């Protein structure tokens, strides 16, 4: 594949990416930095009429690290996700399934 074709393919991939995908990528990056077992982390992104729901699944031992003391970690993750959501024009909700 030549350089022009690659640039065109990259531009099309970026155009097809939903705003919720960008938010989910950020949430995944943050969560993977908190947990011990990164391979057990998975995100389920659901686009709804009223916004986006991001459900975080992780190892049972790591759920407490994602939630944090008194829920501080998950509150911070939600704040960041909602701020980015506002920037791209989407309402965002983040839940931890554990």
UniProtKB/TrEMBL annotation:
Tell where it localizes: Cytoplasm
- Tell me the superkingdom of the source: Bacteria
Q: Which protein family is named in the record? A: Belongs to the KhpA RNA-binding protein family.
Name of protein: RNA-binding protein KhpA
Q: Which CDD domains match?
A: KH-II_YlqC-like
Output the lineage of the source organism: Bacteria, Bacillati, Actinomycetota, Coriobacteriia, Coriobacteriales
Fetch the PANTHER family from UniProt: RNA-BINDING PROTEIN KHPA, UPF0109 PROTEIN SCO5592
Does the record carry Cytoplasm as a key word?
yes
Protein source organism: Parolsenella catena
Q: Keywords in UniProt for this one?
A: Cytoplasm, RNA-binding
